């Protein structure tokens, strides 16, 4: 992991196509601007985690419900 210190209006380049700009630093909150090609997905980490957890819950089979379905056949 690369760890950088940046101030407001400074940027970080990732490859040739992605630029992250520090828009504002206020207390413990940093506002970022991200310029990237339209084909690059940019998602918040906590959103990805929430979606993954929800998907895992959706595929978890309730054993008692499954047993009830088997008995009906």
UniProtKB/TrEMBL annotation:
Pfam families: CsrA. It is found in: Cytoplasm. The keyword Cytoplasm applies. Keywords: Bacterial flagellum biogenesis, Cytoplasm, Repressor, RNA-binding, Translation regulation. The keyword Cytoplasm applies. Homodimer; the beta-strands of each monomer intercalate to form a hydrophobic core, while the alpha-helices form wings that extend away from the core. A translational regulator that binds mRNA to regulate translation initiation and/or mRNA stability. Usually binds in the 5'-UTR at or near the Shine-Dalgarno sequence preventing ribosome-binding, thus repressing translation. Its main target seems to be the major flagellin gene, while its function is anatagonized by FliW. Belongs to the CsrA/RsmA family. This is Translational regulator CsrA. The gene is csrA.
């Amino acid at each position: 992991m690369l760890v950088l210190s940046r101030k407001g209006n400074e940027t970080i380049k990732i490859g040739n196509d992605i630029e992250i700009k520090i828009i504002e630093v206020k207390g413990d909150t940093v506002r970022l601007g991200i310029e990237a090609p339209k084909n690059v997905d940019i998602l918040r980490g906590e959103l990805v985690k929430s979606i993954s957890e929800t998907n895992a819950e959706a595929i978890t089979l309730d054993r008692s419900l499954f047993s009830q379905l088997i008995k009906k056949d």
